[in-house]
Amino acid sequence: MIDTLAPLFHVRNDCPPLLLITGDREREMLGRYEENAYLWRMMQVAGHPNTKLYELDGFDHGQMAEPAFPLLLRFVRSIATTPNR
């Protein structure tokens, strides 16, 4: 059951735009950045045109909300102004 809910089981080229933001891989829980990087790569392999991955250097998961917010706003604005989204 849990595997069917995992993001990797839903990789395809017609997914909605996807923004992945992680903390610094040296400060995060082991493997968290790598899991997101793997999802990003699988979306590339699937031909997805709009998956972005950001690593916030110097921030862990609990510290990343404020530095991630401008990235989120920019991403939402970019897809909101793109036709057919």
Protein model, in words:
This protein has 3 helices and 2 strands. The protein has 85 residues and is an alpha+beta fold. It has one domain (17-80). It has a two-stranded parallel ribbon with strand order 1-2. The longest helix has 16 residues, at 65-80. The radius of gyration is 14 Å and the shape is globular. The mean pLDDT is 92. This is Lipase.
Using the CA coordinates, give the radius of gyration: 14 Å
Q: Give the SSE string.
A: HEHEH
What does the average pLDDT come to? 92
Strand order of the largest sheet: 1-2
Number of DSSP-assigned strands: 2
Q: Beta-strand level of the residues, as a percent range?
A: 5-15%
**Approximate shape:** globular
How do the strands and helices of this protein lay out in sequence?
Layout: H1 2-5, E1 18-23, H2 32-45, E2 51-56, H3 65-80
Parallel strand pairs: 1-2
Structure keywords:
two-stranded parallel ribbon; alpha+beta; 2 strands; Lipase; AB_hydrolase_fold; 85 residues; single chain
Question: What can be said about this structure in brief?
Answer:
The protein has three helices and two strands. The protein has 85 residues and is an alpha+beta fold. Strands 1-2 form a two-stranded parallel sheet.
